[in-house]
Amino acid sequence: MIESLQRLFQDMMAVGEPPEKGEPTLALATAVLLCEVARADYHLDDRELARLREVLGQRFVLDLSALDALLAQAREEVDTAVDHHRFVSSVREHCDYNERFELVRLMWSLALVDGHKDPLEEHRIRRLAELLHVSHGDFIRAKLAEEGASPG
């Protein structure tokens, strides 16, 4: 628990700083993976963007300027990265299983916020869940939980 709090504090302090040695901060890695899901259907809905801002702001306790900087950096990474291995690796390295499961659940909440379950978004979440070593059963559990919570 103390390690999680220390990690959260370190990530909050490092949000605006460039990552050292190519390793992204947990905040950036999380933002990139969530952006990947939001953009999987080639359309970034205003509701998805608002949900993305809400999730990142709460998860990393960011003020508006830090949140804007994080989102700008994450969107640039999504546009320019050849692959997302370093972001997935960072999350796997710094998060325990429950935190990774929670990230998959947040991916579903982001994908479903527009009231539409797009097959491209589902495919992207499935692939990211596999790369994050979240079991298929928990992938389904997160999906069902968010489908039950989503309006519509």
TrEMBL record:
Protein name: TerB family tellurite resistance protein
Domain of life: Bacteria
Organism: Halomonas nitroreducens
Entry-linked InterPro entries: DjlA_N, TerB-like
Pfam family, one: TerB
Domain Co-chaperone DjlA N-terminal as annotated: residue spans: 28-143
